[in-house]
Write a structure and sequence with these properties.
Layout lengths: L25 H31 L7 H28 L6 H14 L3 H29 L10 E5 L2 E5 L9 E4 L9 E3 L3 E5 L1 H4 L5 E4 L3 E2 L4 E2 L4 E5 L7 H12 L5 H26 L10 H15 L2 H20 L2 E3 L2 H8 L3 E4 L6 E12 L4 H12 L5 H6 L11 E7 L3 E6 L2 E6 L1 H6 L14 E7 L2 E12 L3 H10 L4 E5 L4 H10 L4 E3 L4 H12 L6 E5 L5 H6 L2 E5 L5 H6 L2 E3 L5 H36 L5 H20 L8
Helix pairs in contact: 1-2, 1-4, 2-3, 2-4, 3-4, 3-8, 4-9, 4-20, 7-8, 7-9, 8-19, 8-20, 9-19, 9-20, 10-19, 14-19, 19-20
């Protein structure tokens, strides 16, 4: 059955845009728009109440044509838009819509003289549509909140001055300026010394993010402290925010299997209901001794009102809207409702190591010296490593002591082994065990047990010490694994391109039993394909979205970690965690399960109540008022249930 918006909601003005200056008129505009939306329903409600009161007190003049006309006028504000939509659908060849059901049911009520009930059914249906519209708007509002993040202008440096232009007109390599409180309009590299940014709209994290010079910044972040300058690295259409906006706006287009089934079901269900209503009207003539056409027509009309599938067609998509909105509010982007469903079935989680459970940044873990003070030893080491651009060298250069009086000269690289040079008149060797052995320097046996990256140093042909460099676990890595076990994900595995010894050590720290290291991207893919041969395994893979793209695509659910700045993550993954927090995966699972639970609650509620009242209606034990509850009442309950997702908290 095709679901369309009733014209009642079209009364809303095309724009409720606020004034750019603060003149106090905004509230009036909003209130006026709200009043116009509900005005037809208010008129019908007041006239219905007056009519019922006049009937109740049996007022003499409220008879015959006056009574019919009164209820007819009460019906028009809410009934005419529905009848009109039903007629439009019929002309397009789509006969069996909810508009058609409601129209023939309420017009039929007028034909048999049940005027108040005819008005009441249509009034409550219209109010239900209005509430539905408000609920959908609210759910979509969370999903599309990022639209407000779209920057409107950029201050670009041209001809010796800053000029305000549209972000679409800024080229790669140009310099832009962002004042305090403004949104960064384009992706780029920070040119200023440091910046404090609010990335809440992009990542779901309210805590300000402080970054330093040459760090990446993303469009949509808000500058908090001082004027900053940024060098643009992406055109606006290629920026992270533009891609995410496109992703978010299209997320609801991918229907879940449940949603698709209900819509297909409604297309078959609605004509069956119409034919059954016809049968309820005429078939009793052949089986009942005292057949009264009016009574059986009334039962058929009740049957039509009860069986209208709006509660299902409205509340199920709304449930998924709510789930998608709640996820985006928490910095998790699902590419569609189908992946919300898929996430609920996951029982096997495979993850990359570097950048997923570790920070992907080398850091000094241990310093051991032989015959030297640590600070002096590190000055020799830093003087040498200052000549290198290797990531390990960069980690060593972050040591707290800075030896500006230590200078390295005659530095040469020994291919595949390390560096050799002179520091303050002493010969210094810095590198691996092969470099030490080549120069006949004995290395302590304790280094054999170290699995992490190790930098050995010798000064004047004597072993002086070593530094252990290791990737650091993310703050929430351990609690993530514990939380995954609690939500029922028992089968967890690490697949990494890093050394197997390091991978096994990280797995032990995290209490993960299965881990393999030293893998190429195709090796990871083969591992996942092997797991998929068991049909009981429903696999989610978490990776960085670049090297892991093949596995992300092959998994039942591909999850990109920290995918905000990764083109491949956004293109390949099904779910994007906009921060580097693996714990968000647990939250994604919880949100998915809550969404599915609410959707099935609504399905059971709708079918259960309708089945009971249908039986009562066919047996003459239910009136139009029960029918209204079974249709509109259940729809409203289902909507309220779906809206709960907007208020839920997932720890």
């Amino acid at each position: 059955m095709k679901k369309k918006k009733v014209n009642l909601r079209d009364l809303k003005p095309k724009s409720t845009k606020q004034h750019s200056h603060n003149d106090g008129h905004n509230h009036g505009i909003v209130n006026s728009a709200t009043f116009k939306i509900y005005f037809p329903a208010i008129v019908s409600f007041l006239m219905l109440m007056i009519g019922i009161a006049l009937d109740y007190f049996n007022v003499a003049f409220f008879k015959d044509w006056l009574r019919i006309n009164w209820y007819g006028i009460a019906y028009l504000p809410v009934g005419f838009p529905v009848v009109k939509e039903g007629w439009k659908s019929i002309k397009k060849g789509d006969v069996f819509t909810e508009f058609f059901l409601m129209s023939i049911a309420t017009i039929g009520a007028f034909v048999i003289g049940e005027y108040p009930e005819g008005v009441a059914v249509m009034l409550f249906y219209a109010v239900g549509e209005l509430f539905q519209g408000a609920a959908v708007k609210r759910a979509k509002g969370n999903i599309k909140a990022l639209l407000d993040v779209r920057p409107k202008e950029a201050n670009v440096f041209r001809n010796g001055d800053y000029t305000s232009v549209s972000p679409e007109d800024v080229n790669i390599g140009e310099k832009i300026q962002i004042r305090v409180g403004e949104k960064i309009p384009l992706d780029g590299i920070l040119l200023s010394v440091k910046a404090s940014l609010n990335t809440a709209a992009l990542t779901g994290e309210s805590k300000p993010d402080t970054i330093t010079k040459n760090a990446k910044v993303y469009a949509g972040s808000i500058n908090l402290e001082s004027v900053i300058e940024v060098e643009v690295t992406n055109k606006f259409e290629d920026s992270s925010i533009a891609r995410i906006l496109d992703l978010v706006q299209n997320a609801t287009a991918r229907k879940s299997k449940t949603e698709l089934f209900i819509r297909q079901f409604a297309r078959i269900y609605t004509p069956i209901v119409v034919y059954l209503a016809i049968a309820v009207t005429f078939l009793p003539y052949f089986f009942v001794e005292e057949y009264i056409f009016r009574d059986w027509l009334y039962r058929a009309l009740i049957f039509l009102v009860i069986s209208c599938p709006c509660a299902l067609v409205i509340s199920i998509p709304l449930g998924y809207f709510g789930g998608l909105g709640a996820a985006s509010k928490n910095g998790i982007l699902f590419k569609g409702a189908s992946f919300l469903d898929a996430m609920t079935k996951i029982n096997t989680l495979v993850m990359d190591k570097t950048g997923t459970v570790t920070k992907g940044v080398f850091k000094i873990k241990e310093i051991k010296t032989v015959g030297w003070e640590e600070s002096e030893f590190m000055k020799f080491l830093m003087a040498m490593e200052g000549q290198s651009t290797h990531p390990i060298a960069k980690a060593i250069m972050k040591y707290k002591e800075v030896g500006k009086d230590f200078k390295a000269v005659e530095v040469s690289e020994v291919a595949g082994k390390g560096l050799k040079g002179i520091v303050n008149g002493k010969i210094v060797l810095v590198g691996n065990k092969a470099l030490m052995h080549t120069n006949n320097i004995d290395v302590p046996t304790e280094t054999e047990a170290i699995v992490e990256s190790i930098v050995l140093a010798a000064i004047d042909n004597k072993f002086a010490g070593y530094v252990v460099i290791a990737d650091e676990l993310k703050e929430d890595a351990k609690e993530t694994i514990t939380a995954l076990h609690k939500v029922g994900i028992k089968n967890i595995m690490i697949l990494s391109g890093d050394k197997d010894s390091i991978t096994q050590q990280i797995a032990n720290e995290l209490n993960i039993e299965k881990a393999r290291g030293g893998l190429l991207p195709e090796d990871k893919l083969n591992e996942v394909e092997t797991l998929k041969r068991n049909p009981e395994n429903k696999i989610a893979f978490i990776g960085d979205g670049i090297n892991d793209a093949p596995v992300l695509a092959a998994s039942d659910v591909g999850i990109a970690m920290g995918g905000l700045g990764s083109d491949v993550a956004i293109e390949t993954a099904d779910v994007i965690i906009q921060t580097d927090q693996p714990s968000k995966v647990v939250k994604a699972i919880k949100i998915s399960r809550s969404t599915r639970k609410i959707v099935w609650q609504n399905i059971i509620l709708a079918f259960g109540v309708k089945a009971i009242v249908l039986i009562l209606g066919a047996g003459g034990l239910a009136t139009m008022w029960e029918a209204v509850f079974a249709d509109v009442g259940v729809a409203l309950l289902a909507i309220l249930n779906a809206v709960r997702l907007q208020r839920m908290k997932w720890s």
